[in-house]
Design brief:
transcription regulation, 8 strands, elongated, GAF-like_dom_sf, DNA binding, Pca regulon regulatory protein
């Protein structure tokens, strides 16, 4: 089926504006996306006209609150208590925490939390994607699906242990510890620099995962 190029470009523009909220002019957006400025102007004008984008200082582009119902619709697929669970886990573990979910062949970061006592923090950005089976988060999500023939050794080990651990995969120095969320294609985990106390974090993670079942 042939895609609608204008619609696709409109979503690319919307995503870029969201990523650089209030920072880009139309000219800068066109340069960043390597698109004709006239095309960008028309797309932006349409988004402004229907209320999803505005120019608060008459120059820089920003999303409006009209985007919120779209997010709320998606958020219904996430456990309602997930943010509270992540924040409690972050304070208990003194680590950055994240909830990821499967979407197609990828896992996507849908919620994060950072504890309050650290000046330097590592975190997934919301919406970050990487393949299922890659890094601790992707391996833990893979464990929520039935085992397949010739499965990756890291996934087999994670199934046996009940958790996935990775280091220096998505970023040098970054470590992650994730556990599958029962009955959901999701995983919850802690992240840090260089090391994680697995024995201390694992019971907290398992309890957090159970809390997300309901």
């Amino acid at each position: 089926m042939q895609s609608l190029q204008t619609l696709a470009r409109g979503f690319v523009v919307l995503e870029s504006i969201a990523k650089h909220q209030g920072q880009l002019t139309i000219a800068q957006l066109a340069q960043q996306l390597d698109m004709n400025r006239t095309v960008i102007y028309r797309l932006v004008h349409t988004l402004v006209e229907i209320g999803y984008v505005h120019l608060p200082d008459q120059q820089h582009l920003a999303l409006t609150a009209k985007i919120l119902p779209l997010y709320r619709g998606f958020e219904q697929s996430i456990p309602a208590q997930s943010q509270t669970v992540l924040e409690q886990l972050s304070e208990q573990s003194q680590a950055v925490t994240a909830l990821v979910m499967a979407e197609g062949n990828e896992c996507v970061v849908v919620k994060t939390a950072c504890h309050s006592s650290s000046f330097l923090q590592l975190s997934y950005r919301l919406g970050t994607r990487h393949p299922i089976g890659v890094a601790a988060a992707g391996i833990a999500v893979a464990c929520t699906y039935p085992a397949v023939e010739n499965e990756n050794a890291e996934i087999q080990l994670a199934r046996k242990q009940g958790y996935a651990f990775s280091q220096n995969v998505l970023q040098i120095g970054a470590v992650g510890l994730f556990v599958p969320v029962p009955n959901r294609h999701m995983a919850i985990g802690t992240m840090g620099f260089n090391e994680i106390e697995i024995d201390q974090h694992l019971p907290l993670l398992k309890q957090a995962a159970l809390n997300l079942m309901f």
